[in-house]
């Protein structure tokens, strides 16, 4: 077999394997979506029975987290079927704030969350649930990189570009953009990991601790919005993912 034929056969086998894995993942996510629906129903009942205000507040947070989980499963199912979610102009800072509010209880004691959120009036054309998932996934990824503690830095601002700019993953056109940077002071990524970071099912985590779908979902969601991603990383110094989103006109 010639080299080109062998390469084509290997690529074909890889594509078939990816399609099979995608189908299995979609079926699992579909079942999980129904499980979340069951949990949400019981949470509603618990909230109706609760008389203590603090208890009701915690149940509200559980319900909000389950609703976000349902949104995530819907996004994964849409992603696996090639369907884009509906979008409309959303206030990007409000979505980032809500995502961080949900994230805060899971931030380890040794990690300091630093927020610098501008862009108070900026809106981007996106699905709010998808935008929230971008923030959550990048923040979780940052937390996983800081086993010994550190800083999780979330920055949001407005940027106007006079000319186009090529990033590590995509191209930004001239005009107004919301720029979301999520950085950590963790272990950083070597070049061989960075090259595969956005590939579906690629993960450096131990078995059972990661699916390898987080960053690919981020990449797909950013592309849906018409944005681009820039990644800056250095081993031992940390990583920063910067997401550029065009402002809604």
Structure description:
The protein has helices at residues 3-49, 53-81, 92-103, 128-144, 191-194, 214-225; strands at residues 88-91, 111-117, 123-126, 150-161, 165-167, 170-172, 175-184, 228-234, 238-246. The chain is of the alpha+beta class and 249 residues long. The chain is 49% helix and 24% strand. The chain contains six helices and nine strands; from the N terminus they run ααβαββαββββααββ. The protein folds into two domains: 3-81; 88-246, 2-Layer Sandwich (Heat Shock Protein 90), CATH 3.30.565.10. The N and C termini lie far apart (55 Å).
Summarize the structure in short.
By secondary structure, the chain is α+β, with helices and mostly antiparallel strands. The protein folds into two domains: 3-81; 88-246, 2-Layer Sandwich (Heat Shock Protein 90). The chain is built from six helices and nine strands; from the N terminus they run H-H-E-H-E-E-H-E-E-E-E-H-H-E-E.
């Amino acid at each position: 077999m010639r080299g080109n034929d062998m390469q084509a056969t290997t690529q074909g086998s890889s594509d078939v394997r990816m399609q099979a894995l995608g189908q299995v993942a979609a079926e699992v996510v579909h079942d999980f979506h129904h499980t979340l629906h069951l949990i949400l129903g019981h949470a509603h009942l618990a909230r109706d029975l609760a008389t203590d205000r603090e208890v009701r507040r915690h149940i509200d947070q559980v319900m909000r987290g389950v609703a976000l989980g349902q949104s995530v499963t819907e996004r994964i199912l849409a992603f696996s079927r090639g369907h884009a979610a509906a979008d409309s102009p959303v206030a990007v800072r409000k979505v980032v704030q809500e995502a961080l509010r949900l994230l805060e209880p899971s931030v380890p004691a040794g990690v300091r969350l630093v927020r610098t959120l501008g862009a108070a009036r900026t809106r981007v054309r996106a699905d709010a649930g998808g935008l929230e998932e971008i923030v959550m996934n990048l923040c979780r990824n940052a937390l996983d990189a800081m086993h010994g503690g550190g800083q999780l830095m979330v920055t949001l601002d407005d940027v106007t570009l006079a000319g186009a700019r090529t990033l590590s993953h995509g191209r930004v056109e001239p005009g107004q953009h919301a720029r979301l940077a999520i950085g950590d002071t963790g272990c950083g990524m070597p070049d061989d990991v960075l090259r595969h970071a956005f590939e579906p099912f690629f993960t450096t985590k131990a078995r059972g601790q990661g699916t390898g779908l987080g960053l690919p979902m981020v990449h797909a969601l950013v592309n849906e919005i018409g944005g681009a991603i820039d990644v800056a990383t250095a081993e031992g110094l940390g990583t920063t993912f910067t997401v550029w989103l065009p402002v809604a006109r």
